[in-house]
């Protein structure tokens, strides 16, 4: 059965890029959220196997969303999506329980490698 992924990013273009990589590699995208609050709500609704979580978003950023998702489900598999220059926030995210991070612009093989590792 295909592993189920929730994609979170405030940029529709970024969500589309990630979705394209995932569906081409046999993953099922169960939802797309465009801010941290939606991410937390959709996590509860869909219980995905994995979340790709953007760091910089309006309303609630990825770090706060990560903390709330981990409070609901300590076993949640979350990969952070970061931009160049966000190393400090990536460190915060890893300490808060993120499994890995991918850096924009995304490279398909790196995205898939991170996801496979996080799910193994
Ligand atoms: Mg963003």
From TrEMBL:
Modification type 4-aspartylphosphate: residues: 54
Alphabetical UniProt keywords: Phosphoprotein
Organism superkingdom: Bacteria
Response regulatory domain sequence ranges: 4-119
GO biological process: phosphorelay signal transduction system
Database matches in InterPro entries: CheY-like_superfamily, Sig_transdc_resp-reg_receiver, ST_Response_Regulator
SMART domains the UniProt entry points to: REC (SM00448)
Protein name per the record: Two-component system, chemotaxis family, response regulator CheY
Originating organism: Salimicrobium halophilum
């Amino acid at each position: 059965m295909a592993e189920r992924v929730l994609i979170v990013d405030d940029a529709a273009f970024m969500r589309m890029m990630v979705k394209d990589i995932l569906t081409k590699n046999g993953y099922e995208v169960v939802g797309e959220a465009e801010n941290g609050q939606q991410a937390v709500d959709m996590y509860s609704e869909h219980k995905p196997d994995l979340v790709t979580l953007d760091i910089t978003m309006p309303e609630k950023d990825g770090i706060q969303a990560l903390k709330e998702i981990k409070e609901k489900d300590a076993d949640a598999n979350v990969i952070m999506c970061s931009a160049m220059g966000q190393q400090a926030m990536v460190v915060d995210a890893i300490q808060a329980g993120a499994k890995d991070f991918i850096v924009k612009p995304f490279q398909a093989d790196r995205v898939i490698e991170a996801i496979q590792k996080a799910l193994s």
